[in-house]
């Protein structure tokens, strides 16, 4: 018997084997969860590259469905949650691992962001969680949970994170407001703030390699985190073990977020305070 034996849910946002959503899926599957999945719609139905990438990963896990969903379209979100209801009836969790900003707006300074780029980034990265959660309310069991993914750039200025930092800040605020609104229905809403992980999304962030070096140098654990660590933390927040936790942003970043300056040994000194 695993922590999720008999529990069902839906995962939005697996792109490939390097996606954090895939690490979360593996952790949930190891504990017995039954899941359905969405993928980014394919432009060419005759060559479903996005669908095939996701199916290659999740079909061996016994995926209950794999369907397209453009989170910018209400009709796609409606169809996705209809499939959820038709397949499972009620579910116990929703995983939201969706974020995007147009490259030209993400790589430049915030003050140079275009109006359309800002709207697109906020729509996909923030409103998608709101849209999903509003629909999930009708199919989540009491005690159910919604989980999203964020990053420290939503709390602090992280050079190179730029427009996505604004999106993550809004996302974390949405988590808190919806946790307050849905708590009386027995539904929890939380976020995992992961350290830098080499995903497709991360490839668009400027100086990403430098971010990895900073974590290895400055974090209390003196190392970067792994996808598996994020997956296990997310699984915990979705489980009954976290039944008293909502509106929370759990940092899985080797402790990097607590540091106000570099460790004493970061530049060759001694870390021994005695």
Element layout with pairings:
Elements: E1 8-12, H1 20-30, E2 34-39, H2 49-58, E3 66-68, H3 74-88, E4 91-96, H4 103-106, H5 115-136, E5 140-150, H6 163-182, E6 188-194, H7 208-218, H8 227-238, E7 249-252
Parallel strand pairs: 1-2, 1-4, 2-3, 4-5, 5-6, 6-7
Can I get a quick summary?
The chain has 274 residues and is of the alpha/beta class. Helices cover 38% and strands 15% of the residues.
Whole-Å distance between the termini? 48 Å
- Tell me the overall shape: globular
Question: Could you report the average pLDDT, rounded to the nearest whole number?
Answer: 93
Instruction: Count up the domains.
Output: 1
Fraction in helix = 25-40%
Write the element-wise H/E pattern from the N-terminal end onward: EHEHEHEHHEHEHHE
Q: What structural class do you assign from the helix and strand content?
A: alpha/beta
At the fourth level of CATH, the homologous superfamily is: NAD(P)-binding Rossmann-like Domain
Record field, number of beta strands? 7
Rounded to the nearest angstrom, the radius of gyration is 19 Å
Specify the CATH class: Alpha Beta
Strand content: 15-25%
Give me the CATH fold name: Rossmann fold
Number of helices: 8
Instruction: Quickly give the CATH architecture.
Output: 3-Layer(aba) Sandwich
Largest sheet: 7 strands, parallel
């Amino acid at each position: 018997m695993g922590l999720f034996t008999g529990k069902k849910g839906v995962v939005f946002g697996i792109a490939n084997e390097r996606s954090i959503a895939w690490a979360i899926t593996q952790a949930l599957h190891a504990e017995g969860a039954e899941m359905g999945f969405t993928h980014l719609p394919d432009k060419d139905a005759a060559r479903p590259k996005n669908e095939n990438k996701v199916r290659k990963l999740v079909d061996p896990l016994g995926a209950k469905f794999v369907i397209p969903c453009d989170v910018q379209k209400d009709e796609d979100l409606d169809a996705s949650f209809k499939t959820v209801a038709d397949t499972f009836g009620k579910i116990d969790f929703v995983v939201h691992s969706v974020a995007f900003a147009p490259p030209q707006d993400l790589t430049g300074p915030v003050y140079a962001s275009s109006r359309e780029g800002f709207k697109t980034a906020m729509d996909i990265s923030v409103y998608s969680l709101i849209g999903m959660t509003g629909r999930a309310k009708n199919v989540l069991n009491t005690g159910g949970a919604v989980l999203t993914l964020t990053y420290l750039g939503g709390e602090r200025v992280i050079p190179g994170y730029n427009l996505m930092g604004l999106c993550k800040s809004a996302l974390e605020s949405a988590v808190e407001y919806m946790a307050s609104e849905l708590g009386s229905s027995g539904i929890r809403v939380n976020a995992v703030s992961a350290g830098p992980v080499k995903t497709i999304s991360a490839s668009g962030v400027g100086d990403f390699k430098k971010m990895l070096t900073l974590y290895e140098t400055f974090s209390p654990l003196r190392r970067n985190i792994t996808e598996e660590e994020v997956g296990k933390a997310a699984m915990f927040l979705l489980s009954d073990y976290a039944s008293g936790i909502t509106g929370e942003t759990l940092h899985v970043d080797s402790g990097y977020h607590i540091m106000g300056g570099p460790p004493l040994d970061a530049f060759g000194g001694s870390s021994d305070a005695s």
